[in-house]
Every structure is written in structure tokens, then in C-alpha cells.
Write a structure and sequence with these properties.
With about 270 residues, the protein is of the alpha+beta class. The protein has helices at about 15-25, 35-40, 100-110, 130-140, 155-180, 185-205, 215-220, 225-230, 235-245, 255-260, and strands spanning about 30-35, 50-55, 70, 85-90, 90-100, 120, 130, 140-145. The protein is built from 10 helices and 8 strands. The strands form 2 sheets. Strands 3-4-5-2-1-8 form a 6-stranded mixed beta sheet, sandwiched between helices. It has a two-stranded antiparallel sheet with strand order 6-7. It is elongated. The N and C termini lie far apart (about 50 Å).
Length: about 270
């Protein structure tokens, strides 16, 4: 991986983590081991665990990790998140994340052409975009081996915002459907998805890589919407959704092409 000037200093690893990195690097199939997550970008706190990424090609042998915690083989967590392990090294909690370099290379090429897909994933409100695999490379610190980061693709910056905003408007439309039924939980869920989808659109317009949703709303400048979710009414839900839409800059008369061709979507 190319050296980056974005880090003020390389993270100092505890002895137990250094020893684990050596174990990961020695696993058959491993190409590189990196430090990811909040510790890689110097935004960690006392509650932060250690995120270690293992990039491999072909098959990888995880046998050496089994005594250290719970191990999940490739594919267990989906095509993007892949698999990994939840480990304890002394007093340190470690998330090991597997990344198949063939998959990373594929979605990186797609991102460079302005293309991506979204997968449902536990812990994600709006889903995980496939270009996250490129975003991770841009933010991680190399520990062993070499993998190459890429800049945010201009074609993705041009194409992705309209995709995310289509999703945002669809979510708002479904929030209104739930509102007409008095389903407060459904309204909250769809409206929250809309906020995060708009935040993704803003990040892409800025050519800003995003690895997860944890700080996305704040970094996109949408923190002012948080107070609305603390005041969701039991009545007049439609009006509340319209207020959220107004804060997101969505026009009340926005065209909704999916309504013209809705097939078997239910009422």
C-alpha cells in the first residue's frame, strides 16, 4: 500500500495485538494485514476495540484463530463483509475482518466506472454499498504486506448521488405509507433510512469515502435532523414526514416514477 500523509502518527500496537498480527500474516492465503476502524484514523476512545483486516487471495486457512474466539469463514457475513472473527487477546477485544482481494478488485473496478450495489447487512440502516471495499483501503494503516488504495473515482462522484437520492425519496414515500396506517415504528425506520441515504449522497458529491454509517449523518451536516426523531408524534405522522423531507431538501411535488409501474407492491 502506498504511504499516506493523512495520519499524524502510526498507531502503537500493544504486544498482544502485534503477536496476533504475526499470526494473521502467517495464515496460508494472507496477502496483507491492516489496521482499520477508528484506531486507524486516530478517532478511537476507551471503548474502541481493534479492527484488523486480512486481505487474501484464493483460500485462507483460519485454523490458528479458533483457540482465540469465534471464527466465521469466508461468506458467513455476506459478499461484501465476507467473514472474520471476534477474538480476545489478553485484555484487548479484536474484530478480524476478512477481505477477498478478487472481490475487492472487482468492486473497485465497478466503482471506477461509477457503478455500485447495496447489500442488506446487520447494523446498517441504509445497507452497505459495495464501494466500501475501496473506502476501507483508503483509511486503513498497513501492518504486514501490501495492498493499494485508490482515490475516490470521479465517475462515482457523478453517478452515486442520484442513486442514493432515488433511494431517499423511495424511503420517504414508504414512510408516508406507514404514516397513513399509524405505524410509528415503520415511519421512524423509513425516515431514518432516508436521512442516511441523503448523507451518502452528500458524501459522494464531496468525493468522500465512507466506511460505515456511524458518523455519517454528522459528517454530512445533517445533525440538525436528530431532534426530529426525539419528537415523533403518535398523530399527524404525515406532517412529520413532510418536515423531515423539507429538512432533506426534497420537494413536495417530486416525481415518483415507481408509482407508475408498481407491480404487486401491496397496499
Amino acid at each position: 500500500m502506498r504511504a499516506s500523509k493523512r495520519f499524524w502518527a502510526m498507531t502503537v500496537l500493544p504486544k498482544s495485538i502485534t503477536e496476533l498480527v504475526d499470526v494473521l500474516a502467517a495464515m496460508p492465503g494472507t496477502v496483507a494485514v491492516v489496521l482499520g476502524g477508528s484506531r486507524a484514523v486516530q478517532s478511537d476512545d476507551k471503548e474502541s476495540d481493534w479492527d484488523l483486516g486480512v486481505y487474501y487471495r484464493g483460500e485462507i486457512d483460519l485454523t490458528s484463530l479458533s483457540p482465540l474466539g469465534s471464527v466465521f469463514p469466508p461468506g458467513s457475513w455476506g459478499r461484501v463483509m465476507n467473514g472474520g472473527a471476534w477474538l480476545e487477546c489478553g485484555e484487548e477485544k479484536v474484530d478480524v475482518i476478512l477481505r477477498d482481494l478478487d472481490v475487492v478488485d472487482y468492486w473497485t473496478r465497478r466503482a471506477q466506472e461509477g457503478e455500485f450495489e447495496r447489500d442488506a447487512l446487520l447494523g446498517y440502516v441504509a445497507g452497505i454499498p459495495t464501494y466500501v471495499l475501496s473506502a476501507e483501503l483508503a483509511s486503513c494503516q498497513p501492518l504486514r504486506g501490501s495492498v493499494e488504495a485508490v482515490p475516490f473515482p470521479p465517475k462515482l462522484a457523478a453517478a452515486a448521488p442520484q442513486v442514493w437520492r432515488f433511494c431517499r425519496s423511495f424511503s420517504l414515500d414508504y414512510a408516508r405509507m406507514y404514516a397513513r396506517r399509524g405505524n410509528v415504528a415503520g415511519v421512524a425506520g423509513q425516515a431514518a433510512a432516508a436521512v442516511i441515504e441523503e448523507a451518502h449522497a452528500i458524501a459522494c458529491e464531496r468525493s468522500q469515502w465512507v466506511c460505515n454509517e456511524k458518523r455519517l449523518v454528522e459528517s454530512a451536516g445533517l445533525s440538525n435532523l436528530n431532534h426530529l426523531f426525539a419528537e415523533i408524534p403518535n398523530e399527524r405522522l404525515l406532517e412529520w414526514v413532510d418536515v423531515v423531507a423539507d429538512h432533506l431538501g426534497v420537494q413536495r411535488n417530486e416525481a415518483m416514477p415507481w408509482r407508475a409501474n408498481r407491480l404487486g407492491a401491496g397496499n
